[in-house]
Write a structure and sequence with these properties.
Largest sheet of chain B: none
Shape of chain B: globular
Order of helices and strands of chain A: HHHHHHHHHHHHHH
Number of helices of chain A: 14
Number of strands of chain A: 0
Order of helices and strands of chain B: HHHHHHHHH
Shape of chain A: rod-shaped
Oligomer: heterodimer
Largest interface: A-B, 38 and 48 residues
Structural class of chain B: mainly alpha
Structural class of chain A: mainly alpha
Number of domains of chain A: 3
Helix content of chain B: over 70%
Number of domains of chain B: 1
Number of helices of chain B: 9
Strand content of chain B: under 5%
Radius of gyration of chain B: 17 Å
Helix content of chain A: 55-70%
Distance between the termini of chain B: 43 Å
Chain lengths: ~260, ~180
């Protein structure tokens, strides 16, 4: 194939006869081997481009997969991290048991719901007026409070029924001649820290379990069993009713 | 070329079949019939085309772009082989130097066509072509082999249209004289 200038495109400088003569003599072609080499190079280059295109095309689904799942993966990672953090936080049961078990005791409303029991302040007052009781209290000083500050300790002490105070020998330090609140407000070496107070005011062992058992039996409909369990609890701890939930205390008062 | 740029190798085959003879002869005439040089330059040109397939932009006719590459390759060849820049061949001294180089290359050519009866006319034409200054020969080859117009040659060679026209006129006159001798 030749690119010789067509006849119609002659320029003024051209010569048709000369062009024809030129076309007759100038007819060389590149060697077939050279043609083959060039064509092969072109194919190879085009194949390389197609291969690159295939690689890019093949990598696209991977990228789209990443794009598609990246938000979900991120959400899963955040959820996992949150779970780990929640698991690592201190749980409610890890808190000192006494701090929870004493809560009903510190509730004044709970005390007020028991008309048969004198108020705590009256009981304390009675104690302060009773030198023997105060003496007993002095002999076995046990911090009654489960709370941190001294005022709370005094409140807790005053919340305890008088009978319980008598039997458990719970008394505030420096009880003689002073009120419980005053005694609690006074600096006491045995109650320097909250941890110490919590340690000293440990509920009777198994009290929570016994209360839970009574509650469970009552909830299961075994009222008789719950009553028996409560009676046993009372034998161990006369203040057993205080460990029961408020919803059971009305029922507990009916149990003799 | 754009189809080939997209990876269609068959498009290149069509393109190559259309232009291969003209580009080969362009180099062959400039090399004074030295087939080995023409082969080398021809191969270099088309490998450059292959390498530029993805960068090719159809700003002009493909043949204009193709012969721009071909001419650059030819100039590089002249510069490396003979220490001559094609653009500096206008003066007489460099013309003589170029013709001697072409003649030396021609003497080493054992093309079997030279042995035929028509080979005499062929030889005289090619000799006449080799005798004209390279810029005029280049304009002539771009015109008759590449099929480029005056304007395209002017743009390709960075010369004015009138300059190209005079170069072509001079080349035609020299070649016509050679053919009249044969007649």
């Amino acid at each position: 194939m030749s690119n010789h200038v067509p006849e119609g495109s002659r320029t003024p400088a051209g010569d048709d006869a000369l062009d024809r003569a030129w076309q007759q003599v100038s007819d060389e072609q590149p060697p077939p081997a050279l043609d083959a080499a060039i064509i092969a190079a072109a194919h190879k280059s085009a194949q390389g481009r197609n291969e690159r295109a295939q690689v890019i095309h093949a990598s696209l689904p991977y990228r789209s997969w990443l794009t598609r799942w990246q938000p979900l993966a991120a959400a899963a990672a955040v959820a996992g991290l949150a779970f780990v953090l929640v698991q690592s936080l201190p749980r409610d049961r890890d808190v000192a048991p006494s701090m929870r078990k004493e809560e009903p005791v510190t509730t004044p409303a709970a005390v007020q719901e028991q008309p048969g029991i004198p108020s705590s302040r009256e009981a304390i007052k009675a104690k302060t007026e009773s030198p023997p009781a105060a003496a007993v209290a002095r002999e076995s000083v046990t911090a009654p409070s489960s709370t941190i500050d001294q005022k709370s300790a005094a409140d807790t002490a005053t919340a305890m029924p008088a009978t319980e105070l008598d039997q458990r020998q719970i008394a505030a330090p420096e009880m003689s001649g002073r009120s419980a609140s005053e005694a609690a407000a006074a600096p006491v070496p045995a109650r320097t820290t909250a941890a110490t107070a919590a340690r000293d005011n440990v509920a009777p062992p198994g009290a929570a379990d016994r209360a839970a058992r009574v509650t469970a039996l009552y909830a299961a409909g075994d009222v008789a069993g719950a009553a028996d369990s409560l009676r046993e609890f009372r034998v161990v701890d006369p203040g057993a009713d205080m460990y029961l939930p408020e919803s059971l205390r009305d029922w507990a008062r009916t149990v003799q | 070329m754009r189809a080939y740029g997209r990876g269609d190798a068959r498009a290149f085959e069509v393109l190559y079949a259309r232009h291969k003879a003209a580009t080969y002869r362009y180099f062959l005439r400039h090399a004074g019939g030295d087939a080995a040089t023409a082969d080398e330059l021809h191969q270099d040109l088309w490998l450059k085309v292959i390498g530029a397939r993805e960068r090719y932009e159809a700003l002009a006719r493909f043949s204009t772009w193709l012969y721009t590459l071909a001419r650059h390759r030819m100039v590089d060849h002249w510069r490396s082989r003979h220490g001559i820049a094609l653009e500096s061949l206008a003066d007489e001294a460099t013309v003589m130097q170029a013709e001697e180089s072409v003649a030396a290359a021609r003497d080493g050519n054992d093309d079997p066509l030279h042995a035929t009866i028509d080979a005499q006319a062929r030889s005289r034409v090619f000799t006449a072509l080799a005798a004209i200054p390279p810029l005029q020969r280049d304009a002539f080859l771009l015109h008759v082999e590449g099929g480029l117009s005056l304007e395209e040659i002017a743009g390709l060679t960075a010369a004015s249209g009138e300059t190209v026209k005079s170069r072509l006129r001079y080349a035609y006159r020299r070649l016509r004289a050679a053919l009249e001798d044969i007649a």
